[in-house]
Design goal:
- The chain is α/β, with parallel strands linked by helices.
- 44% of the residues lie in helices and 14% in strands.
- Helix 17 crosses helix 18, helix 22 packs across helix 23 and helix 24 runs antiparallel to helix 25.
- About 7% of the residues have low confidence.
- The protein binds a DNA duplex through helix 5 and helix 27.
DNA sequence: CCGTCGAGGCCCGAC
DNA sequence: GCCTCGACGG
């Protein structure tokens, strides 16, 4: 074996080096949070390519997000040179699944009945389809919730059960309902020439079953396979990986059972716990040294996770400094909580010159983000929300994508209906007209979209029964525009096609330039256009297909753009997996939220649910490098009603000596003591020590070092200046208070009243 | 065909 | 409390 380049091993500890160098045979790396897992993965890939001469295309690396895949590839190329990793198979399970299917259009069509222009249905599409399926089998969507059907169907698919297999497992009436809906759902998917997310994993396995030679080809291709976040793989993913690794058996799995947080989507922790049974010759490597967080944070995390029974015994340690105390704080309600977070962030930015992008605010449920966002919106602090209403879920963006999908895959009736509903071109076509075209199309053995296209020429000339009057000309227009755009697709770039689409569909014209809301929506449509530019280099015909695949696989975490403006990150605990921030706030550390109420309700039947919640908290805590804030409230509005709350039982698991508590004046120390009694009486709670009942005023004495993005020196303002603020618009500075190295400005905005802003932070343009 | 209004569900998490 | 969906009237 050639000597590894010193640089590839430089700075790695013994265990990390072993993980990089043990290239032959199965290896399981149990990697605690912050233990340099990503470094190991990237250095290992670099080592394989550079030192062992492995071709990049012979390596398959599975990551948890597309973003992680991109970053990992970049880091590898940084180690061994730009372009040196090109050809590397790296991506999420889903993107690799779609790649298998796209690479073999012939066999996929032949064996799976999926035509080459198949589309991927997202959450909303799946929901609509599930609802159709419920109705189609004669049930009421109000009684048989499509969402529940979907989650059952998804669970079945994750276990590799097709409708026929599922029927055999039926035990009660409810299962029978699911079985019927599942069968119909699959029928509708096939009819639409579409597949859902789960199918992206299931279909490749079916493909390999049907065409063993194909599997052998991939087995021969992948000399080395690396899988990140192995603890969160489900059965289908497990089967796929084991099948692919069967020939060379160079499977490198990295994971952490303590960070398993996806049992609800059928992640099976047994995949990682049973690795040794699957591969008795496996090398086990543990990465237990945390390089990310201060000792206090590591200790808090370690003590918390020790309370779980479902785990591999392991100690997380660190050589880092003690750092600051973990700050635990009670607020009276969610508004005060949000205000505290914003105020504290402002203070950190102001006094300690922390950049917003060093800060994350985390929560258990997306619903919590709303109040937080309100507070941020009122402040001058830049923020972004990961998840929530995603860009691609916005109505206007979905409208355009739906029409693009119709052009690409005429069988996608869901998208056709959306187009008719939301595009001006669909105006005048009601359910009646659609039904008629649908029947006509069925008679003529074609799709409804093709029906509109085929009928258009004759409709232009005369009433073609059954389409008459208003619906006749409307249907004619729709059919001919679709036909025109499809012709254009063959010769134009995607952006040109986009321009033609928003023009001829009348979509662009439907936005009112006087309406702020419309203009906001139109700007989103234009942002979509910017997206398309990346695909203009591809040959027409191929660009649209590639774009549509990609757009369906964008995850929340992927949409976190770095660079440009520094922003505070608002993110769910789930989405925060794999990320790190110097400063982390975890909000809503309460019974009902963390652990979430559903886990509490099921506690007696399924104690594992509570353990998963604890792991989720653990994931959150271990995202923090320097500073960790935990907040909970005395009461919170839920479903529009105020309810008083109890602090999370998990708080009692934290080591007293690393946590500093701050009560609010309203609740005070007394109530905190009461609450601590409530904790100790809670089932399943082991207290590690009483939390100090005293609440001293908070003034942590610390500073984040090495701040790369420290605010630039701010311009000087003077009273009387007319200014412009990106959010609040025009205003006048009425008062200025000089601070040590900043100015506090009082500004009267024309529209938004009086605000107090900091000169260094507010992005003001001086008008006069 | 389009807008308005009330009822009811919703909020556990995501590719 | 907000959003979505279906019923109803213009």
């Amino acid at each position: 074996m050639p000597n590894p380049t010193a640089s590839l091993l430089h700075g790695l500890n013994d265990a990390q080096q072993q993980a990089v160098l043990t290239t032959q045979g199965p290896v399981l790396v149990v990697a605690g949070p912050g233990s340099g897992k990503t470094r190991v993965l990237t250095h290992r890939i670099a080592h394989l390519i550079q030192d062992l001469g492995v071709m990049p295309e012979n390596i398959l690396a599975v990551t948890f997000t597309n973003k992680a895949a991109g970053e990992m590839k970049q880091r590898v190329e940084k180690l061994i040179g730009a372009g040196a990793a090109s050809g590397l198979w790296i991506g999420t399970f889903h993107s690799i699944g779609v790649r298998f299917l796209r690479q073999n259009p012939g066999i996929v069509a032949d064996r799976l009945g999926l035509l080459p222009n198949f589309v991927i249905y997202d959450d909303a599409d799946q929901m609509a389809l599930a609802k159709q399926a419920v109705v189609a089998v004669g049930l009421d969507p109000k009684q048989v919730a499509p969402r529940r059907m979907l989650s059952r169907i998804s669970a079945a698919k994750s276990e590799m059960l097709d409708p026929d297999d599922f029927v055999k497992t039926v035990e009660k009436y409810d299962d029978e309902v699911v079985a019927r809906v599942y069968r119909e759902y699959q029928r509708l998917l096939k009819k639409a020439n579409a597949i859902d997310f789960d199918d992206l994993l299931v279909m490749p396995i079916r493909l390999f079953d049907a065409a063993p030679a194909l599997l052998e080809r991939y087995q021969a291709l992948f000399h080395y396979i690396l899988v990140d976040e192995y603890q969160d793989t489900n059965r289908v993913q497990y089967i796929l990986v084991s099948a692919l690794a069967d020939r060379y058996r160079n499977l490198f799995a990295v994971g952490d059972p303590d960070q398993s947080i996806y049992a609800w989507r059928q992640a099976d922790i047994r995949n990682i716990l049973g690795f040794n049974q699957d591969y008795p010759d496996a090398t086990l490597i543990k990465l237990e040294t945390n390089y990310r967080s201060t000792r206090r944070i590591v200790e808090a995390a370690d003590r918390l996770i020790r309370e779980n029974s479902q785990r591999i015994e392991r100690t997380l340690r660190t050589d880092n400094d003690d750092g600051e105390m973990v700050s635990l704080r009670e607020l009276s309600d969610e508004r005060h909580e949000a205000r505290f977070v914003v105020d504290e962030i402002r203070r950190l930015m102001n006094i300690h010159h922390v950049s917003p992008n060093q800060i994350a605010v985390m929560y258990r449920t997306t619903a919590q983000s709303r109040v937080l966002e309100e507070s941020f919106r009122m402040s001058e602090i830049n923020y972004r929300i990961v998840g929530g209403l995603r860009f691609y879920e916005r109505r206007e963006v979905k409208d355009v994508i739906a029409m693009l999908r119709v052009l690409h895959n005429p069988a996608d009736e869901l998208s056709l209906l959306r187009t008719i509903e939301n595009m001006p071109i669909g105006r005048g076509i009601g359910p009646k007209a659609i039904d008629q075209v649908r029947s006509w199309s069925a008679l003529n053995q074609t799709t409804t979209t093709e029906g509109f296209v085929a009928l258009a020429p004759s409709l232009a000339l005369h009433d073609s029964p059954p389409l008459t009057g208003a619906s006749r000309s409307a249907a004619q227009k729709l059919g001919s525009v679709i036909a025109q755009l499809r012709e254009l697709e063959k010769e134009l770039t995607l952006t040109q096609l986009f321009d033609a689409l928003v023009d001829r569909s009348g979509y662009q014209g439907s936005f009112n330039h006087e309406s702020e809301e419309d203009m906001e929506r139109w700007s989103n449509v234009l942002e979509l256009r910017t997206d398309l530019e990346d695909f203009d280099a591809l040959p027409p015909g191929e660009a649209l297909a590639t774009y549509l695949d990609q757009v369906q696989l964008v995850s929340d975490a992927d949409t976190m753009k770095d660079g440009s403006v520094p922003q505070v990150t608002l993110i769910t605990l789930h989405s925060a997996k794999g990320l790190e921030f110097p400063i982390v706030f975890i909000t809503g550390v309460e019974e009902g939220l963390l652990p979430v109420s559903r886990a509490i309700e099921n506690e007696a039947v399924d104690p594992n649910a509570i353990e998963e919640e604890r792991r989720l908290f653990y994931v959150g805590i271990t995202r923090a490098e320097k500073l960790l804030y935990l907040t909970y409230t005395a009461g919170r509005t839920r479903y529009g009603r105020y309810e008083s709350t109890i602090p999370s039982r998990f708080l009692a698991n934290l080591p007293v000596e690393s946590v500093k508590t701050h009560g609010t004046r309203a609740s005070g120390a007394g109530s905190l003591a009461q609450r601590s009694r409530a904790w100790s009486s809670m089932p399943g709670t082991k207290r590690t020590g009483p939390l100090p009942a005293s609440a001293r005023p908070a003034e942590p004495d610390w500073a984040v070092r090495n701040v790369p993005d420290a605010a630039p020196p701010s311009p000087t303002y003077a009273a009387g200046m007319q200014i412009f603020h990106p959010k609040f618009g025009e205003g006048q500075i009425t008062e200025i208070a000089e601070r040590r190295d900043d100015q506090e400005l009082v500004i009267e905005f024309k529209r938004h009243g009086t605000k107090r802003l900091l000169g260094s932070l507010a992005k003001l343009d001086v008008i006069s």
